[in-house]
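Milestone M4 deliverable, item 7.
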Amino acid sequence: MPAVVKVNNLKKDYILGNVVVAALRGVSFEIKKNESVAIVGPSGCGKSTLMHLLGCLDRPTSGTILIEGADVSTLNDNQLAQIRNRQIGFVFQSFNLLPRMTALENIELPLIYNDIQETAQQRKDKALATLDKVGLADRANHKPPELSGGERQRVAIARALVSNPSMILADEPTGNLDSKSGDEVMQIFEKLNQEGATLVVVTHDHSIAARCYRRIHMHDGEITADEKK
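Output delivered:
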């Protein structure tokens, strides 16, 4: 399988006053198409920094990140925005849904920003089909405050999927959920991966990481283990 993401000698430093803090210390790995990968480690290990870099939300101090062959460290802000919107589907711990919009309207947003020539009806149909994929077609016209935490996260997953991204990047996706809802969300991720989605889950929870095919362990800004089932 071709690599969706290829990271080489990635370093990220933060300057705090007169002190330089090395958040990443030369990280290298590849993620191939259709893999499910957990990036796991304790708080402060560098996994959140790595997530921001993989998601094109920040730039590295040095090293390269290739997403489907494109070196994103060389792109300008507009080009990075296009990568984020078209090739990366984000799922966050806090859902990040707009409370005054319906579930369907929240899912349509990436399609509007994609600037693809689609009619409003085509966008609506695509969003509804994606919502059905996560089992919530009957909740399309409900707003986030009217949904449970697990339902809100499923809406967020549908929003991440609707643009058919190269990679789904999930940051602690079950962190705000009870165990039953968290299990339902992970079952959806597992099903999506079986259907061909490339999944990267950033987590401190080893039970969540164990459900992924591959686990990249981090400590003090370095990869300490890279294991597969």
